[in-house]
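Is this the right way to post structure tokens for a design question? Let me know if I should format differently. Anyway, here goes:
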């Protein structure tokens, strides 16, 4: 079952640069320039899609399209359920690499 929380976490907690890097040659070409992460827009094929790290959304300054992780995979030809399954695995792998949050211990 695909929950609203899972969709929110895929859109917000999985950095789009991590998604694009994990797609490798199946993903769009990407680069960092001028402190921004840019990639080839799958809609217009211009290297003007830029990720805003504050909201994890990409915006193409050529065709004016906004993309999140799910939108990106859909425009690359993935079916919705397949895209969510792939992104869920990437999210779990990404979160497993993050430092564990310390929980306060009772004295």
């Amino acid at each position: 079952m695909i929950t609203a929380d899972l969709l929110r976490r895929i859109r917000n907690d999985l950095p789009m640069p991590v998604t694009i890097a994990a797609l490798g040659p199946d993903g769009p070409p990407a680069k960092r320039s001028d402190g921004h992460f840019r990639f080839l827009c799958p809609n217009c094929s211009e290297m003007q899609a830029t990720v805003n790290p504050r909201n994890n959304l990409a915006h193409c300054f050529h065709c004016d399209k906004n993309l999140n992780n799910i939108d990106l995979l859909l425009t690359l030809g993935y079916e919705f359920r397949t895209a969510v399954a792939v992104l869920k695995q990437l999210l779990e792998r990404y979160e497993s690499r993050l430092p564990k949050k310390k929980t306060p211990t009772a004295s």
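Format looks fine. Someone answered above. Worth noting: DSSP finds four helices and five strands in the chain. The two ends are 40 Å apart (CA to CA).
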